[in-house]
Amino acid sequence: MSQFHGPAEGDWLPLQPHDAATLLAQVTLPWWIAGGWALDLFLGDQTRAHEDLDVGILRRDVIDVITHLSGWEVFEAQSQTLYRLEAGERPRLDVNSLWCRPRHAQRWSFELMLDEAQGKDWVFRRLPTVRMPLANLIKRTQEGIPYLTPEIQLLYNARHPRAKDQDDFLRVLPRLGASARAWLIDALSTIDSAHAWLAKLTI
Questions:
Q1: Domain assignment present for 139
Q2: Residue 96 and residue 27: Cα distance in Å, rounded?
Q3: Contact of 109 with 54, CB cutoff 8 Å
Q4: Total structural domains within the chain
């Protein structure tokens, strides 16, 4: 049973994507930079400030990845509350976010985001009929840093887009290839056929 810790709050001193790449260099399972940083890595430039760093993994790989993080503390983050994960403890199935920091540190370093998969497909946890082959899930920068393909990141952002999500969408849209745009149109249409982004995607 996870140990109760307290409210999901505190200061962040987030890693940069290249720091995460160094930390996870020996992890052979899939992982990727997610969130706003993923879109900036796709664009090839940092377009705005980032308050944190999201790192995505498949839920089925979580124990192996956490085991690699020796010397780190890992907490479930859910409903504004943190629960410490003990060694070998698997997060609850309704938890999608893990906050991580070096042991004894006061500030958080990165957030592990848990994505679903079935066989060789990535599965959108909010609607499992929306899928993508795992082979297409990750792109890489010229330096080899893996990041979440932008159409999936935009799909996550589309649920309740904040001002920065809207800005990110408008920056990324001109760079989306035809197949990425078609996938996002299909996914968004399935989830919300009246979504405001669809009009811009279909121009």
A1: yes
A2: 20
A3: no
A4: 1
Q: Which helix (H) or strand (E) holds 25?
A: none
**pTM, to two decimals:** 0.95
DSSP track, 70-135: TTEEEEEEETTEEEEPPTTPPPPTT--EEEEEETT-SSB-EEEEEEEEETTEEE-TT-TT-EEEGG
CATH code for the domain in which residue 59 is found:
3.30.460
The token duo for 104 is 């004894």
pLDDT tens-place string over residues 107-120: 999 999 999 999 99
- The parent domain of residue 142 ranges over 3-149
Say what the alpha-carbon torsion angle 85, 89, 95, 100 is, to the nearest 10 degrees.
40
Nearest Cα neighbor of 14 from 52, 50, 46, 54 is: 52
pLDDT in tens, 152-181: 999 999 999 999 999 999 999 999 999 999
